[in-house]
Amino acid sequence: MIGTQLKFLATSSKGEVSALLIRPDDATHLLVLGHGASSNMRSPLVTSIAEHLATQKIATFRYNFPYSENKRGRDPNPVCVATVRSAVKAAREAAPDLPLLAGGHSFSGRMTTTAASEASLEGVSGLVLFAFPLHPPGAPDTKRADHLSDVTIPMLFLSGTRDQFSEGLIEPMVKKLGDRATLHLLETADHSFKVLKRTRTSTEDVFDEIARVTSEWANSTVPAARKSLRNSGLPAA
After folding, report:
1. Predicted structure pTM score
2. pLDDT, tens digit, 9 for 90 and up, residues 93-110
3. Residue 157 CB contacts under 8 Å (≥ 6 apart), including other chains
4. Which domains are present in the chain?
């Protein structure tokens, strides 16, 4: 699916990074979508998420972090958190008529929740977190989730039942967050959403499931675009 290529300033010291806007007809929301720690905005995984979300009328604004843009070692977390804020601002400017969501796969989801826990992300009404990484593989812990108690907007967690970065800890963690958090478990999916087809009882493609659940959650939790436009006084498309 062809999108609109953009650039925005990540931070004053790191310079510009690339972004890709995919906006389907009659889009209801725009999701600022980050990538995993060792990939970039054009990785097959993030591309699949974006393309399937488009079938559910959810636009996406994918972006690189400075380190993935320049193919260097990972930036310190504060730089990545600042990049999330810059991406949200750029997405809001690219599609000011759409209700805004933010999140990403794995590392970028954690950077997005970190940003939201420190100060509100302007215009963002909900967070969508694909395979949120609670801990490194083989080291079960929930310390990476401590900041989530400071996030004040709704969160949707989509996690595989074989995710080696959560190992059964995601359910009690989300339950502890109360009504602000929703968890959807993806049967037999691992951290990269690869499934065990022989033992998976659902016949729905895992990326179709991800997109459907995200759309249902967004439309029940975050005001739809047309309603938002009426309230803002802007003309509806």
Report:
1. 0.91
2. 999 999 999 999 999 999
3. 129, 132, 170, 174, 181, 182, 183, 184
4. 4-232 (3.40.50.1820)
